[in-house]
Amino acid sequence: MKAQRELLEILNRISSGEATDEDIHQYNRWCHSFQTKGLSVPDVEKITSGMLEKITKRIRRESKAYRLRLWSRVAAAACVILIVGLGGYYLIHKPRTEQIAKNKIENNVAPGGNKATLTLANGQTIILDSMHSGQIANQGNSKITKAGNGLLAYQAQGSKLKTQSEILFNTLTVPRGGQYQLILSDGTKVWLNAASSIRYPAAFTGRERKVAITGEVYMEVAKDVLHPFIVSTRKADITVLGTSFNIMAYPDESSVETTLVEGSVKVVPLSGKGEELGVRLKPGQQAIVANADGNIGVKTVNAGDVAAWIHGLLSLNDCSVQEFMDQLSRWYNVDIEYTGKIPDKKFGGMINRNAELSNVLAALDAAGIHTKLEGKKIIVLN
């Protein structure tokens, strides 16, 4: 009982952002002592689940007030990296600013940031991370403004609509190690994750509002019942009237996943079973369209976990080692190499996207997944 009370006190300090390095070390040592003896850790799952729920609620509560100011603030509790796996719970505290210089690790890799390239209709490219805030271009009757660090906004000028032949398409491309936010001319908000892109008209015309994406995006679509919003991916079209949802359509993944947060969307695969009718999702559901055959399936998920990345977190719930490494590859702009068979393990928990890569790899090491960092390559050791 005394050990459990001490652990609870440590977890409370962790969840409030007040934990010391000794707290983290003691917690990991406490877990390890039980595992090496082949014993289960008393009530750790229950206690840690409660802590994680507390962290998640705090992050979501704070993020609602700052949704437009993406990446602007993360709750203090999110400075904790929590990895759950291999029968144990391991936490690595993100170093404070004054500790970083003192404890700097050679060959470390910084997290990603606000990086993107805008391609205009005439082919001109603008590297946004090197531009100052303010108006940067005009496209037809739309003014394009860099509204802040990591935010690009379109504003239609005047009420006269262009004809269909005058539609000017732009493309926003986010590289590996990047993220960006976009506000379309109709007010729709778009978050782009690393290694993602979106092609869209500078101003919407006609009966439909249509865009095409690759990679991963989160959208809050401006409601307009007369002009449905359609998102095209390589395997499916997603039709909405006004809603919030996440789409993951990376070319190296085995499927295209559409997760509904609120509202209603219809997912229609371009081939395979379900092509004719598609499926209509309810909040908390995810449609999976297989790349191999185009077949579609639906499952219930935690939509908040799927969209956690827009609030500065990586959610690892039920995440395999390869899925985890794919996320690290995109966000930290590193390559992954396996020296043998990929470990067949699952993870859970949250990772702060602002954490340096060395901290994440240290947490993995504590959880039994050993790696080596060579330049811009993570080698997963067998």
Sequence-ordered SSE layout with sheet pairings:
Layout: H1 2-15, H2 21-36, H3 44-64, E1 80-85, E2 88-93, H4 97-102, E3 113-114, E4 117-119, E5 125-127, E6 134-139, E7 142-148, E8 151-156, E9 169-174, E10 178-183, E11 189-192, E12 196-201, E13 209-220, E14 229-232, E15 236-240, E16 244-249, E17 255-262, E18 265-269, E19 279-281, E20 285-290, E21 296-300, H5 303-306, E22 313-315, E23 319-320, H6 321-332, E24 335-338, E25 346-352, H7 357-366, E26 371-374, E27 377-380
Parallel strand pairs: 3-10, 8-10, 13-14, 24-27
Antiparallel strand pairs: 1-2, 1-25, 4-5, 4-9, 6-7, 7-8, 9-12, 10-11, 11-13, 12-13, 13-16, 14-15, 15-18, 16-17, 17-20, 18-19, 20-21, 22-25, 23-25, 26-27
Helix pairs in contact: 1-3
Write up this protein.
The protein is an alpha+beta fold and 382 residues long. Among the domains are: 2-109 and 312-380, Phage tail protein beta-alpha-beta fold, CATH 3.55.50.30; 111-155 and 167-183 and 195-206, no CATH class. The chain is 22% helix and 36% strand. It is built from seven helices and 27 strands. The strands form three sheets. It has a 19-stranded mixed beta sheet that branches. Strands 1, 2, 22, 23 and 25 form a five-stranded antiparallel beta sheet that branches. Helix 1 runs parallel beside helix 3.
Task: Explain briefly what this protein structure is.
The chain has 382 residues and is α+β, with helices and mostly antiparallel strands. It has seven helices and 27 strands. The model is unreliable at 40-45, 62-80, 92-105 and 160-164 (pLDDT under 50).
Which key terms come to mind for this protein?
382 residues; alpha+beta; Phage tail protein beta-alpha-beta fold; 19-stranded mixed beta sheet; five-stranded antiparallel beta sheet; 27 strands; globular
